[in-house]
Amino acid sequence: MRLERLTARLRPCPAWQAIDLGFALARAWFPALWALWWCTALPLTLMVLALAWLHSDLWLLALWWCKPIYEAPLLLWASRALFDERPRRGALPGMLGAGLRPRLLPLLLWRRLSPRRALVLPLLLLEGLPGRAHRARLRTLAEGSASGWLTLVCYHLEAILWGGMLLGLYLLIPEGLAGIDLVAALDDSASPAYWISSACYLLACSLIAPFYVCAGFALYLTRRTELEGWDIELAFRRAPPPPAAVLPALALLAPLLLAPPPAEAETWPDPEAARARIAEVLDSPEFGTTREVELWLPVTDPAQRGTEDAEDSWAATPPPWLAGTIQWGLVTLAAIALLVLVRALWRERAPRLPRSTRTGHEAASGPHATSPLDHESEIRRLLDADDPGAAIGALYRASLERLDRLGLSLPPGATEGSCVQRASARLPRRIRVPFAAIAAARRHAAYGDRAPSAAHVERLLSHWRRWRGRTGAH
Amino acid sequence: MNRHPREHAEPIDTLRLRETPEGIDLGLRVAGPVPRALALALDFLIRGGLYLLLLPLLALADLGIGLALLAIFAIEWFYPVVFEVWRGATPGKRALGLRVVHEDATPVGLPASTLRNLLRTVDFLPAGYALGLAVSLADRDFRRIGDLAAATLVVHDERPATRRGPASTAGQRPPPEFDAATRAAILAFAERAPALADARRIELAEVLTAPRGVRGTAAPALIADWAAWIDRVTPDGRAA
């Protein structure tokens, strides 16, 4: 074993990192390992195809069971490549049969389902210990290794690649063509879809196999490195030899060393030249860069300010009073704006009534400035002027005033409807029915623009006179 | 077998170095699909638990269904973002010792986290993150599409190393020709020697000491002395 020729850096590390190292190895050697896998698997595939009487499920099961046969050559190849000895073509046929060696038989029989298969393979193939020693050695090597997890995860990786390939094929076949029946691909072993699915699985196996074998190999190597200190041995071998060992070598080389050495090694540069050289080196961009930065700074030197004032025009340095005026002007504007805002807000908060209702209500609830007779003469005057709309309005206001006097409190801004509602809740029928009629006529005149006929107003007026007369007797 | 010339001068490793402006190399151990898939599964279970907590909302008829739908939307889209920005990783990732960082090793921010989680919809295609798996297997740093777009990495969190206490003896000064890598290996040997088999310990120590004339059980003892000298603590408490 020549550790100096290792092509991978081995060190004691946790099992997960060992597995990752194995994946890195497989990635570096992938084309060769993949081709080697098919070199063994392809003949066997065709042979089993004939033996399985074209039963695709049996065919796949047999190929799956024979996995160690294809994996052994990969491991043998990897073990040579690790020590930088890529096997030549001539050595390949001997290597292909590696999986059929008698000592690998357990792997094909009762060890086939062992979760530690990746770790057992290097032990059987590279060490080949007899029964009891093998078991003890396996116990030592398997300690702390995650080989069970490795097998479990690799089965899943195969399944994911297989599912991905199958689903990808299914999705990528255009609709017009005969697609793959996914259910048949899983279920019906006689269907062509099942054959495609099996081929996909075989391809997935071939893709994962190099990674699985190399990860198992890396677990084995890492454990041995830990147990045997391979990395330490490598570092010790690379340690510089002791001077005593160097001296005889120097004696042999003496004639060469005594020859006139190169001129530049002999003459030291003089300090001046060296200093110039150092300055030159320090000027190079690696040791720093120059940047131009523009910034404003206050003028602190009055002398400097004076010269600038004299030189600059009025526009460049405006007189100080201008700035003060602008400042106070802005402050005044801000104060005015604030006042306007406050006033607008105050107005917004004050309650606002529709002007027409307020005046109507004031007329209704105001002091008894007008007597009922005045009302009546006013209504009559409007009727004579052929303005029944204004007349019914006057009649409505007069009746509101009447209701107010009867003790019916009407809120400011109450509509005709709410007045009728209140009246009907509080007042007797003989008042509220005529009032409702007046309110309805008023509503039609005011909002519907349908003025009542003069006769209707006359009728309402006579009703009103009647109930006013009765209530007035109170 | 013949020896081909090396294709990669650099050994294969999952450690990525990022240089800070101060010239210090920070090591990031990128995380591969296996721990990330397990973290995803754990997060899925946790989200499922949160959805179960929403079930009582359904008793409120239409209002409850509306609230539950809003909650599901929030959990589905913001659960990873919130935890990544707040704690650096979702609970599932923390359980697996993973963390999300920007490519330059700074903690992930809101824009990058939002972008990488929005693009989960693309990574998910056509089913079960198949596209994301294929992309992360092909990428050198195991990044999925969301990581590529947002320039983020999922890395193994650096667990604080259990340091040995300072050595009880003053030790012995190691030969001056030892470089930093050799000194680090000497310290590592002193730390891991108890776990090594006796024969292997002597064999390993002799690799370094045999050229200097020390063999047998004296070899590990000599290296332990050197380690003690390197690991000595100065009076003001700083490591030398």
UniProtKB/TrEMBL annotation, chain A:
Protein-glutamine gamma-glutamyltransferase-like C-terminal domain ranges (all copies): 395-465
Transmembrane segments: 32-53, 193-221, 326-346
Swiss-Prot/TrEMBL keywords: Membrane, Transmembrane, Transmembrane helix
Keyword Transmembrane helix (UniProt): yes
Pfam families listed in its UniProt record: DUF4129
Key word Protein transport present: no
Residue segments, region Disordered: 353-374
Annotated InterPro entries: TgpA-like_C
Stated name of the protein: DUF4129 domain-containing protein
UniProtKB/TrEMBL annotation, chain B:
Ranges of residues in domain RDD: 30-150
Keyword list, A-Z: Membrane, Transmembrane, Transmembrane helix
Compartments where located: Membrane
Membrane topology: Multi-pass membrane protein
Superkingdom to which the source organism belongs: Bacteria
Keyword RNA-binding appears in the UniProt entry: no
Subcellular location, principal: membrane
UniProt keyword Transmembrane helix present: yes
Protein name: RDD family protein
Species of the source: Marichromatium bheemlicum
